[in-house]
Write a structure and sequence with these properties.
The structure holds 2 protein chains of 2 kinds. By secondary structure, chain A is of the alpha/beta class. Chain A has 2 domains: 188 residues, no CATH class; 137 residues, Nutrient germinant receptor protein C, domain 3 (GMP Synthetase, Chain A, domain 3, 2-Layer Sandwich), CATH 3.30.300. Helices cover 34% and strands 32% of the residues of chain A. Chain B is an all-alpha fold. Chain B has one domain: Up-down Bundle (Amino acid/polyamine transporter I). The two termini of chain B are 13 Å apart. Classes of the chains: A alpha/beta, B mainly alpha.
Chain lengths: 367, 390
C-alpha cells in the first residue's frame, strides 16, 4: 500500500498542472479591451492594452487594434501580434463605443461569463465617441500609470463620488436578465486633453437609450438605493431671496430611500421617498446658525432635488429605461398584472411622485 | 455495538478503525451532502421552479429527515445487522442478494459520477487542459487513502466542512449589499408538477441520508444516532436553503438558470482590494467538501465489498489466524485498488458537465425507488418477520 501511495504522490507532483502551466513572465495580462464599429461598419474594431514590462518607456504598454467579427476572434488576432500569450483574467474594464452600445452589448459580454478564467469584475464603460481615440490620447499622458489603470482609477473615483454607477460585467448581466430592471453604466468621453467621466449611460435591455450627466447620475443612484458609504456634491443656484448668482453646494453624506408601488384601478403608480443628510460646503458669507434660515435652505433643497428627480424620471420614462427597478417591484407585488402587461409600454406612462427631505447636519466652520 | 468476543480478534482490528460516534457520522454526512449538493443545486432548482427553488430545498430536507428517521427506526429493530443482511432476511437469499448487488452497483455509479462531477468542476473552472484521467486519479487519491484507514479518519477529515460553511457565510455577508429581496418574490407561484421535479432533483444530495443503514453497526453510541442524524439533516438543509435563497437574491432567477456553479459564481463577483479575484481561493477551499462527497460513496462500496468477503475471512481466521490476517490485508488492498481503478475509469466517461448532469438525473430516477422502496418494505416486514430478527 505504501508503494502505491508513493506512486500516487509522485504522479501528483510530477504530472498534474503541467498541461495548464502558465508562466507569469510569459503571460501578457490584458488590462483593457474596447469594442467599436470598424470604419467600414461591417465588423468590430477591437483594441486591447497589456502592460509592457521591461519596455524602454517605464509606463509602456503594448496596444493592439484589430478588426474581427467577435471578441474571441479579436483576441486570437491579438495573440498573433503580441510578444506574450495574453490572458484577460485581470481585465480592469471593457469600453464600448456609444454607437455599439446603442445596438446592444449583451452578447459581447457572454465570453466573460462562459469562461471561468475571464474576469466578471471588470467595469463595463460606454464611451462617447471612439474608445480607440480615448486610449490613444491617454497614452500621451506621461504622468499616469498607463491608460488601463488610469481609466480604472478614474471610474473608481467617479463611483466613489456617485458620479457614475458601479457597473461591472456581472452587474450588467444581472440587471439585463431581471425582467423589471435595466442596466446603467458609467459614461466617459474625451474632453480636450483629458478624459472625463460624463455620468451614466442608460440602457433598455442591452441597448443604450440615453445618458445622464454626473449630478443627475448621483440623484439617480440615490433613487436606485446605491447611495451607501459614499457622498456626492449637489450644486444648485442660490435661492432667489439671496439675490446673488453664486451657487449653493451641499455634500450629501447619506441617503435613505423607500419605493412604494400601488396598483389602483389596474394601473400602477410609484412613490419614491428620499431622505438625505448633508453638509453645507458652499454658500456665502452669511450667518447660517439661524434656525429659520436653516429651515429655508432645507426646504429650498427639498424642492430643488425633487424637481431634478422628477426630471430624471420623466427622461427615464421617455427613453424607456428602468434602472430603479420599478418593474421588479411590480413583478414581486403584483405578479399577475406584470405577467399580462407589456411592462416596457406601461412603464412609460405610470404616474410617479418623489418626496424629498433634506436634513442638513453640518454648516461648516465659519459663521 | 459489535460483539468482539463472538467475532474474533481480526474483526476487532478491522472494525476499530471504522468505529465512529453519532457526532462523527453527522459531520461525515454534512460534508458529503454539502460538497456536491450546494455547489450546483441552486441552478437546477432555478431551472425547475425559478425563484421558488428554496421551497424545494425545505421539502427535500423534510424528506431527508424522514429517510433518516426511517433508517434509524429500521436499524433499531434489527440491532447488529446492516442493510445487506436485512435485505437477505426480508427477501430471501436470492432476491436479497440481487437487491444488495443493485445497491452496490448504484453506489458504484453514484461514486463514479460524483468523481466525474468533481473532475468536470475542476476541468471547467481551473485546469481545462489537464487530461481527465489524471485529474480523476489525483482528485480521488485523498478519499481512497482515507478509505484505506477507515471511517474514523474520514470523519475526522470531514470536520473541515464547518470551516468551509463558515467561509461561505462570510462570503455571503460580504456580498449581502447586492442582495435583492424582490428577486425572491412573489413567493409560491410554482406549479406542482414542476415543484415535484425540483424536489426530486434534491435527492442527489439528500438520498445519502440512507447510508446509515449500511454503517449503523459501526456507530458506537447508537442511542444518539437519530438525534445526530436529524441534526445533520437540519444543518445541511439550512446551509443549502440559505445558499439557494442567497444566490437567487443575488443573481435573480433568470441569470441563475445560466450559472452552473452558483456558489463559485458568488466568489467571482467579489472584488477584493489588491488580490482582486478570489474565485480560485474559493474553489480550493471547496475541494475537501467535494472530496468528501466522493469519499462517502467510495467508502460505502469499499466497506460493502469488505462485508461480502467477511464470511470467508472469518472462517479462515478460525483455522489459521495468522494466515487470515495476511488474507484480510491482501483482500482489502486488492479490492481497494481494483475499485479505485474502475471508479476512476468510469468517472471520465462523462465528457463535460452537461453529461454529468444527464447522468445525475438518470441516477436520481434509479436511486429514489431503489433506496426508498426496500427501506419502507423492510420496515413493514420487520413487524411480520420478528422471529428472524437477531
Amino acid at each position: 500500500m505504501k508503494k502505491v501511495l508513493i506512486l500516487f504522490i509522485v504522479i501528483s507532483l510530477t504530472l498534474s498542472g503541467c498541461w495548464d502551466q502558465k508562466i507569469f513572465e510569459k503571460t501578457g495580462f490584458t488590462l483593457m479591451e474596447s469594442v467599436e464599429k470598424s470604419k467600414t461598419g461591417d465588423d468590430l474594431l477591437i483594441t486591447s492594452t497589456i502592460p509592457a514590462i521591461g519596455a524602454k518607456d517605464t509606463y509602456g504598454i503594448e496596444m493592439f487594434t484589430t478588426s474581427a467579427d467577435s471578441l474571441m476572434e479579436g483576441r486570437e488576432n491579438r495573440n498573433r501580434m503580441a510578444s506574450k500569450r495574453t490572458e484577460a483574467g485581470k481585465l480592469q474594464q471593457i469600453l464600448f463605443s456609444d454607437e455599439i452600445a446603442k445596438k446592444g452589448i449583451h452578447n459581447l459580454l457572454e465570453i466573460f461569463n462562459r469562461l471561468a478564467e475571464e474576469s466578471s469584475i471588470a467595469f463595463v464603460i460606454v464611451t462617447e465617441g471612439s474608445p480607440l481615440e480615448i486610449i490613444q490620447k491617454s497614452t500621451d499622458f506621461k504622468d499616469i500609470p498607463g491608460p488601463a489603470l488610469y481609466i480604472s482609477q478614474l471610474t473608481k473615483n467617479a463611483v466613489k463620488d456617485l458620479c457614475a454607477p458601479n457597473t461591472m460585467i456581472y452587474n450588467f448581466n444581472i440587471d439585463y436578465f431581471a425582467p423589471g430592471i435595466d442596466p446603467v453604466t458609467p459614461l466617459i468621453k474625451l474632453k480636450g486633453n483629458h478624459i472625463e467621466v460624463e455620468g451614466s449611460a442608460l440602457f433598455s435591455g442591452d441597448r443604450m437609450v440615453g445618458k445622464l450627466d454626473a449630478q443627475k447620475s448621483s440623484l439617480l443612484l440615490g433613487m436606485m438605493g446605491k447611495h451607501k458609504d459614499k457622498e456626492f456634491s449637489y450644486t444648485v443656484p442660490m435661492p432667489e431671496k439671496e439675490k446673488t448668482e453664486d451657487k449653493l453646494g451641499i455634500s450629501m453624506i447619506e441617503c435613505k430611500r423607500k419605493v412604494d408601488v400601488e396598483l389602483q384601478d389596474g394601473k400602477p403608480s410609484a412613490n419614491i421617498s428620499l431622505y438625505y443628510e448633508g453638509v453645507i460646503e458652499e454658500f456665502k458669507w452669511n450667518k447660517l446658525s439661524d434656525i429659520k434660515k436653516q429651515n429655508e435652505i432645507q426646504d429650498y433643497l427639498d424642492v430643488s432635488i425633487k424637481k431634478d428627480c422628477m426630471e430624471i424620471i420623466k427622461y427615464l420614462q421617455k427613453v424607456g429605461s428602468d434602472p430603479i427597478g420599478i418593474g421588479e417591484i411590480v413583478r414581486a407585488k403584483y405578479y399577475g398584472y406584470f405577467k399580462n402587461a407589456d411592462w416596457k409600454d406601461v412603464y412609460k406612462s405610470i404616474p410617479f411622485n418623489v418626496d424629498v427631505k433634506v436634513d442638513i447636519k453640518q454648516y461648516g466652520i465659519i459663521d | 455495538m459489535v460483539n468482539f468476543a463472538k467475532t474474533g480478534v481480526k474483526k476487532m482490528d478491522i472494525g476499530r478503525r471504522n468505529f465512529i460516534t453519532s457526532k462523527q457520522y453527522m459531520t461525515f454526512l454534512i460534508s458529503a451532502q454539502v460538497g456536491v449538493g450546494a455547489i450546483t443545486l441552486p441552478n437546477r432548482l432555478a431551472v425547475s421552479v425559478g425563484h421558488d427553488g428554496w421551497i424545494a430545498v425545505i421539502f427535500g430536507g423534510i424528506i431527508s429527515a424522514s429517510l433518516s428517521t426511517l433508517s434509524v427506526k429500521l436499524m433499531e429493530r434489527y440491532k447488529d445487522k446492516n442493510l445487506f443482511e436485512i435485505n437477505s432476511l426480508s427477501y430471501g437469499k436470492f432476491f436479497g442478494t440481487a437487491l444488495n448487488l443493485l445497491v452496490i452497483l448504484y453506489s458504484f455509479l453514484k461514486c463514479s459520477i460524483t468523481l466525474g462531477f468533481f473532475v468536470q468542476t475542476v476541468h471547467t473552472t481551473a485546469l481545462k487542459l489537464t487530461p481527465a484521467i489524471i485529474l480523476a486519479a489525483v482528485l480521488a487519491a485523498p478519499a481512497i487513502y482515507l478509505s484505506w484507514y477507515g471511517l474514523k479518519p474520514m470523519c475526522r477529515f470531514a470536520s473541515v466542512i464547518f470551516v468551509i460553511i463558515f467561509l461561505e457565510f462570510f462570503l455571503f455577508t460580504l456580498r449581502f449589499g447586492e442582495f435583492k429581496t424582490v428577486f425572491l418574490m412573489p413567493v409560491g407561484i410554482f406549479k406542482i408538477p414542476k415543484m415535484a421535479r425540483a424536489i426530486f432533483s434534491t435527492s442527489y444530495t439528500f438520498l445519502s441520508s440512507s447510508i446509515l443503514t449500511i454503517i449503523y453497526t459501526e456507530i458506537t453510541d447508537k442511542k444518539n444516532a437519530l438525534k445526530y442524524s436529524l441534526t445533520s439533516n437540519v444543518i445541511t438543509t439550512l446551509f443549502i436553503l440559505i445558499s439557494t435563497a442567497f444566490t437567487i437574491g443575488l443573481f435573480g432567477e433568470n441569470m441563475l438558470k445560466h450559472i452552473i456553479f452558483p456558489l463559485y459564481e458568488v466568489a467571482t463577483t467579489y472584488n477584493v482590494p489588491v488580490l482582486e479575484r478570489i474565485d480560485l481561493w474559493f474553489l480550493s477551499i471547496w475541494f475537501p467538501a467535494l472530496s468528501m462527497s466522493f469519499g462517502l460513496y467510495f467508502f460505502i462500496i469499499y466497506y460493502s465489498i469488505g462485508k461480502v468477503f467477511k464470511k470467508t475471512n472469518s472462517s479462515a481466521s478460525k483455522s489459521s489466524p495468522n494466515k487470515a490476517k495476511k488474507s484480510i490485508f491482501n483482500m482489502n488492498t486488492v479490492s481497494l485498488l481494483v475499485l479505485s481503478i474502475f471508479i476512476v475509469l468510469f468517472s471520465i466517461i462523462p465528457n463535460n458537465f452537461s453529461d454529468v448532469r444527464k447522468y445525475i438525473i438518470i441516477l436520481d430516477y434509479i436511486g429514489n425507488p431503489l433506496i426508498f422502496g426496500p427501506l419502507i418494505f423492510n420496515y413493514i416486514l420487520s413487524f411480520f418477520k420478528k422471529p428472524a430478527l437477531h
